[in-house]
Amino acid sequence: MIDWTRVERVLVIRLRSIGDTVLSTPSLFALRRFLPNARIDILLEDQVAPVLDGSGLVDNVITARHGALTRLRTALRLRKARYDVVFNLHGGTTSTFLTRITGARHRIGYKYYRYSSLYTDLLSSSSDFWGEEKTHSAEQQLALLGFAGVPVSDRPRSSLTVLPAAMDEIEVRLHTYGIGLGKFALIHPSTAFVTKQWPVENFARISEYLAARGIKRVAIASRSENKVLEALARLSRVPIITFHDLSLPAIVALASRAEIFIGNDSGIAHIAAAVGTPAVVIFGSSNRDHWRPWTDAPNEIVFEPFTCQPCPGYRCEAFGEPKCIQSVTVESVIAAIDRVI
Q1: In this structure, how many other beta carbons lie within 10 angstroms of the beta carbon of residue 152?
Q2: Collapsing DSSP states into helix, strand and coil, what is residue 101?
Q3: Torsion angle of the four alpha carbons 262, 223, 253, 336, in this order, in degrees rounded to the nearest 10
Q4: From CA 159, how far away is CA 270, in angstroms rounded?
Q5: pLDDT band at 69 (very low <50, low <70, confident <90, very high)
């Protein structure tokens, strides 16, 4: 299908969230391994692009900002780059049109993508490629590469680079709180949707359990989610260090220093997995087969099965309140922590 000996420039498009970006790294690894001398670029949302800072997997990170004028500038830049091959790992309307605008000879996506006629090469499904009914997000992305002839049979795991400057920042901040070179548990008690949000008071109980085991606690969230951290500190009967102002490279560094990650299904959970940190991830409405940690590090997902899972997650249509995530017990999470540690 593609004469890879003539390919010099490849673009990967992966718009949307932190987790989506992290889970594109197995595909980037496979591409770099296959094309060590080619130019490999990736197009990301501007707010999540720093998660790939320092990555040797790509030559350029191009950011897609909102707004008609900035989108036009991005489109012109992509057109000017004269890519030979474009992989769209996203499939939405914007990414499809940006794929087409590149004018690349090979524009690769799935048959179910919107405006699929704008692609030159279409794969039916990742299930068809792998011969498996259920596939992970990382496998869905890798399948497009494999369909085009890139070796992916080993299914590389997600990976991120820890920047020395970010690690220096984290070491200074941890030292301020008396952690120094010691290990700690990293807790992420917030998430985007209520159907993925384990109750904050449960995370407080987990913090108390960790303290009883002699494990220090660090909790993180975004600046807009700081009320969750305040609630956690208020509800916990033991001290907990909280950060709401870390950059994405600093979060990567912090996660790499943790003994264990404990949190909701989120982009931060995928960051922890990508730096090899053992993890316990609590699931509610999400598709567990699609979003579980993509890592060889010890990990467990904790959930209570409901027939309505998975669901879009914006709100609970079945019960009016997210019983799936609310039904996960503190005891089951503690048991998973014990097994992972």
Answers
A1: 26
A2: helix
A3: 0
A4: 9
A5: confident
Strand partners, 87: 12, 108
DSSP string covering 237-291, please? Answer: SS--EEES---HHHHHHHHHH-SEEEEESSHHHHHHHHTT--EEEE-SSS-HHHH
Where residue 248 falls among pLDDT bands split at 50, 70, 90? very high
314 pLDDT band, cuts 50/70/90, is: confident
Q: Is 91 left (phi over 0), alpha (psi -120 to 50) or beta?
A: left
Residue 181 has pLDDT above 80, yes or no: no
Residue with tokens 């920042």: 169
| 57's tokens | 């997997």
User: Tokens 């960790």, residue?
Assistant: 210
Q: What's the pLDDT at 33?
A: 98
**Number of C-alpha atoms within 13 angstroms, CB side, residue 165?**
6
**How many angstroms separate the CA atoms of 246 and 334, rounded?**
27
